[in-house]
Amino acid sequence: MEKEKKNKRILSSLNYSSRHYRIWLSGFGGLVNGLRSRVYDLVINKYFDMVILLIVIVNTTSMCLDGLLTSQKNIDSVESI
User: Fold this and answer.
1) Helix, strand, coil proportions of the chain in percent (round to 5)?
2) What is the pTM of this model?
3) Burial class (CB in 10 A: 0-12, 13-18, 19+), 11
4) What does the mean pLDDT of the chain come to?
């Protein structure tokens, strides 16, 4: 009992959440949990937000240009670039 209290106190003083020192399971369940943890780390990154926002802006722009490029004259001018 004393060891458990010491371990809990040490881990709480490290400012880590339980997912940082989680022991991974073996087999398919461990693979899924490991993958979920890696994806979570990727998604909470601030650069991920910027990249996704850039992709959304490029997609929106390309969809807006879709209606403008229907005439053969506009298609030829874009293809010459």
Assistant:
1) 70, 0, 30
2) 0.48
3) middle
4) 78
